[in-house]
Structure formats: C-alpha cells, structure tokens
Amino acid sequence: MTFAQFLSILRARKWAALAVFALVVVTTLVVSLLLPKKYTGSASVVIDIKPDPVSATIFPGLSTPGFMATQADILQSERVALRVIRDLKLTENPAIREQWQAESDGKGTLEQYLVLFLQKYLDVKPSQMSNVISIEYKSPSPQFAAALANAFAQAYIATTLELRADPAKQFNSFFQAQVKDARESLERAQQRLSAFQQEKGIIVTDERLDIENARLAELNSQLTQSQGISAESSSRQVQAQGTQSDRLQEVLNNPLISGLKADLSRNEAKLQELVQRLGDNHPQVQESRANIAELRSKIEAETRRVTSGVAVSNNINKAREGQLRAALDSQRTKMLEMKAVRDEGMVLQREVENAQRVFDSLVARQNQSALEAQNTQSYANVLTVAQPPSEHSSPKIVLNVLLAVFMGGLLAVGVALLMEMTDRRVRSPDDVITALGLPVLGSLPTPNAKRFNPARPVALGFANQRAVSLPAPGSQSGI
C-alpha cells in the first residue's frame, strides 16, 4: 500500500474515522470529568547509612546494594501499616467501620481490611542516586492524604527503631544467661587451679623451674668432675697396690720417706766402704747392715702408710661420686615431677584463661547489646513533611485528553483500514494497475463534479468514478 492509497482510504472513510476519534476523545473527557478528584500527600525520609556510635564498633556500615530496596519493602510492609492504624486510631472511626461492614460483610478483621486499603493507595519511591525515599498517599481528602503520608513516615521510623532494638533486647537476654554460665565456668576453673596448688603445696612458675634446671645442670657438672677425680684416684690406688707404689707422687713428695731414702743411700755407701776395709764379718759391718735393714723397713712402713691414704682418698672420691649421682637422680626425679605438676597446672591455668576470655567477650557483647537495646535514635529521619495539596493529582484532564487524542487517532486509522479490508474498493487508477496489471486510459468524472480537467485523470471523487482501461498491445482482454 502506497501513501497515496492510504490517504485515499482515509478520505473515503473519513466520517467513520472521525466518529471513532470523537467517541474516544469525548468519552475520555467525560470520564475524566466524572471521576472523583484525588489528592496526593507527599513526604520523604532520608536514610543515614553511617552507623551510630553504639553499633559502629561491630558494624562498619549500612551501605549495601539492597539496603534501600529493603527500606522500601519495610515501608510497604503490614507492620508499618498496622502501626499507622494504631497511631491514627482508624479502627475507632465509625465511618470506616461501616464501610468495612458494607464492603466485606463482616468477613475477616477490620485491621486486615485497613491494611489492604492503605497499601492500595500508598506509593513508595526510593531514589536511585541518593538515600531519600519518597512516600506518597492518594485520597479524596487533601488533609487525609497529607496525614497518611506523615503517619507512614513516622511509623516507618518507629518500626526501624523497633527492628534494631527488639533483636538487641533478645540478644541481651541471651547474653545475660551466657554470662552467668561463663562466670560459673570461670569460678569452677579457678577453684580447680587453687585446689591443685594447695594440694601440691607449690606455685608452679617458670622461675622455680629455671632454678631447678640450673641446679640439675650444676649437679651434672659436679658429677662429671667427680667421676674424673674418682677415675684418677682408682688408677693411683691400683698403682699403690702394685709393685710401683714407690713411684707414687705422694710417696715421692713425702719428706720423711725422702729423708729415710737419703739415710739409706749414705748407709749403703758406708757399708761398701766398711766391707772393703774391714770385711764382711766385722761388727761395724754387721751394725751397718742392721741399720740399712731398719731404714728399709721404715721406708716400706711409711710407703704403706702413704699408699693407704691413697686408698682412703679413692674411697672418699667414690663415695662423693655416689652421693652426686644419687643427688642427680633425685634432682631428675624432682624435675620430672615438677614438669608433670607444671603441665597439669598449665592445663588448669589455660582453662582459667580461656574461661576468662570467654567471660570477658560475653560481658563486652552483653554491654553492647544492652546499649543497642536502649538506643532511641533511628538511622531514618523525616526530610519533608507532607502538607495538604492545593491541587488534585488525578484525574489529569489535559494528559488524559492528549492520550485520548493519540489513542483515538490510532483507533480511527485502524477502523478505517479494517473497514477497507472488509469492503475493498478501487480508489485510484493505481489500484486498477495493481489489481489487473493493465494501463488506465482515462476516467469519467462523477455526475456532481464541478469541473473536469483532462490533464488530471485522478480526481478527489475517483472513488465514485468508473475506471476504464483498454487492453495493452497483444492483449486479448480489456475493461
């Protein structure tokens, strides 16, 4: 379909199209004038995403992607609507009660009816680029619309405060019970630790253990030294009991033995001289030999006395080594006992420390929840207070008429095209060419045509003309 054909169809069906257009516009205008006027009360609240000083220590902030959407849902919730009903005492209004009885026949409750009624005319619009939420309420009364918008704002603020305070109160009760149990656990742990310390008679500390470790190391060092001394004394005793006892250091360093040996050497030299001079049987020779024998016996006796002292010293060293070994074993046993006691005491001490940490954290959380339960400041505040509007918000007559003009025009064109499709007619020579594929040679004007112009075969009244076409060269048909 060409644009010229479209215009010819509109010209031909103009009265039907105008009738539809006028019907739509007039109907819309009449309905808009007859509809009751409604007024919109508008209030707004601003959300402070900054945490309050009480919860700032736990919650870093309230700015989350769905936070504003959540606030809008809270505003439209049944809980807020019920608070509005209670605040405005709508259930005590006789007119509202009569309206409920008439519309619902007493079914359900008045609160449920009012909740649905209020939510029907409530419009909540959270801002996309800010933390402001607009609250709009429509009503035939401008005063009632403003009052409801303000009531919803105040009810929303009170509800947000309840939503924060009520869980905090429940947590506070919970933490009170937990603090009581934690205190009892801490007291039991402390009692076990005190009983253990009293039973062992000591206070397990790292300083005491360090002292005992130092003593153990000292005993170990002394035992090592004593073992060396004992080994040396044992070898000397063996030497003293053998044939080389005269080579002992004690024997060599003994002044008496040294003097006796010196006398023995002089007497032996004197004996050799006397033997050479007097002979073996001379009384002086016999006396000299007797003196030498006496000196040797004295040397042997003194040597035995000195070597017996080595044996005594060896026995003393052995006894000392045994004492040190016993003391070392005793110290080791004591250290093991102290470590066992310390380990057991450390377990009890850790139980006390863990119980103390749990108790401290629960007390801190209880104090936090108690402060939150006493919080009277909400993160939402009224930004704009609704005032009774001076002009109604609906129906919008100008807007409705403009929409009716647009829709009426579309509907009129649609009706004209639909009528043309149900009753197809030849409106122009182009229709004949399109339908038959034959050229148009001319057209006859309508009987009431004022002027005929041969140069314009297509006239405005062509819809009532008779189109005549001749067959093209070589064709066997014609009109």
3D structure, described in words:
The chain is α+β, with helices and mostly antiparallel strands and 479 residues long. It has three domains: 11-174 and 376-402, Bacterial polysaccharide co-polymerase-like, CATH 3.30.1890; 209-336; 426-479, no CATH class. The chain is built from 13 helices and six strands. The strands form two sheets. A four-stranded antiparallel β-sheet has the order 2-3-1-4. A two-stranded antiparallel ribbon has the order 5-6. It is elongated. 18% of the residues are buried.
Features:
479 residues; alpha+beta; Bacterial polysaccharide co-polymerase-like; 3 domains; 4-stranded antiparallel sheet; two-stranded antiparallel ribbon; 13 helices; 6 strands; 67% helix; elongated; disordered C terminus; Chain length determinant protein EpsF
Enumerate the spans where pLDDT stays under 50 for 5 or more consecutive residues.
56-62, 457-479
Q: Please report the number of helical segments.
A: 13
Percent in strands:
5-15%
Secondary structure class reads alpha+beta
Instruction: Give the CA-based shape.
Output: elongated
CATH class of the largest domain: Alpha Beta
Rg over alpha carbons: 64 Å
Instruction: Please list the strands of the largest sheet in the order they lie side by side.
Output: 2-3-1-4
Helicity, in percent?
55-70%
Largest beta-sheet details: 4 strands, antiparallel
Q: List the domain count as a whole number.
A: 3
Order of helices and strands: HHEHHHHEEHHHHHEHHEE
CATH topology of the largest domain: Bacterial polysaccharide co-polymerase-like
For the termini, the CA-CA separation is 23 Å
Give the overall pLDDT as a whole number: 76
**Can you tell me the CATH architecture of the largest domain?**
2-Layer Sandwich
Number of distinct beta strands? 6
InterPro entries: Bact_polysacc_biosynth/exp (IPR050445), Chain_len_reg_EpsF (IPR017468), GNVR (IPR032807), LPS_length_determ_N (IPR003856)
Keywords: Cell membrane, Coiled coil, Membrane, Transmembrane, Transmembrane helix
Domain Polysaccharide chain length determinant N-terminal: 5-88
Transmembrane segments: 15-35, 397-419
